[in-house]
Amino acid sequence: MSEMSIDDIVTLITKQVMDTIAQKKQAACPADCQVESVRKKVLLVGPKDPLPEGILTGAAIYDIEDFKAERNVLKYDQVIITKLSLAQLSDAANGKTGDPVANAIIYALLEGVDVLMTGCALCYRKFAGKGSSAFYNMYEQFAKKLQIFGVKLLDNNLQLKVQEAVPPKYPSKPAAAHLPVFPAQDSRLITESDALKLAAGAKDEVKLPANSILTPLAKDVFTRAKLKVVLE
Questions:
Q1: Mean pLDDT in runs of 10 for the chain (232 residues)?
Q2: What integer pLDDT is reported at residue 163 of this predicted model?
Q3: What gap in Å lies between CA 31 and CA 12, rounded to an integer?
Q4: What φ, ψ does residue 127 adopt, rounded to 5°?
Q5: Fold held by 34-154
Q6: Would you tell me how many other CB atoms lie within 10 Å of the CB of residue 95?
């Protein structure tokens, strides 16, 4: 065997030391730790309960606290949103990065990270048809802006869908219409349902029998439709 030079000996010893260190690290690391780097990394904003079964199978799940620690959205392969407050929705749609959730959404879209959002994340939709349609439609426009920016809206079956704005509960006045005919009924009481039917065909006013009794909700219907109630 030929004599080895000092440099060859140093190289050989260094290689043996590095191999030993690598083997010790591998032995100390559990199996799931060794495959962590190849698992899909998902930043989950909100609870995982609303998600279809199996969507997170095999993925490494991180919450918003993990994002807040590093503020590096490129750490994740995908962002999934199951809960979004009204303020977070507004901030994300308007490019405001102060809130961590809005920040994660905005930079994920800018960096090309896949962003999915379930329909249940849009909490304002539970108010559909209950009150101010103007407020409701404002938040609906925010949701549509996020879709335009690249957020994929999903239903409970993990299918992509385009959400249309829910029409307001109270009808708008038609351009031209005849005065409505008072519906036949056994009572003098005008309910919300009666008021909606009357308002649908009214232009400026609604004529009712003099002995009519309007419920508070019926009055609210006429007020929102800007109709004058005339008792004959």
A1: 67 79 67 60 89 79 92 93 93 92 94 90 88 89 91 67 47 50 59 84 84 85 87 82
A2: 44
A3: 30
A4: -95, 10
A5: Rossmann fold (3.40.50)
A6: 12
CB 92 within 8 A of CB 146: yes
How confident is the model at residue 120, as a pLDDT?
Answer: 85
Calculate the alpha carbon distances from 204 to 107, 131, 179, 221 in Å: 50, 22, 8, 13
Tokens of 56: 């997170």
Q: What is the 3-state secondary structure (H, E, C) of the chain?
A: CCCCCHHHHHHHHHHHHHHHHHHHHHHHCCHHHHCHHHCCEEEEECCCCCCCCCCCCCCEEECHHHHHHHCCHHHCCEEEECCECHHHHHHHHCCCCCCHHHHHHHHHHHHCCEEEEEHHHEHHHHHCCCCCHHHHHHHHHHHHHHHHHCCEEECCCCCECCCCCCCCCCCCCCCCCCCCCCCCCCCCEECHHHHHHHHHCCCCEEEECCCCEECHHHHHHHHHCCCEEEEC
Q: Where are the domains of the chain?
A: 34-154, 170-232
How many CA atoms within 13 Å lie on the side-chain side of 25? Answer: 8
CA gap 105, 78 in Å, rounded = 10
Say if residues 110 and 150 touch (Cβ distance below 8 Å).
Answer: no
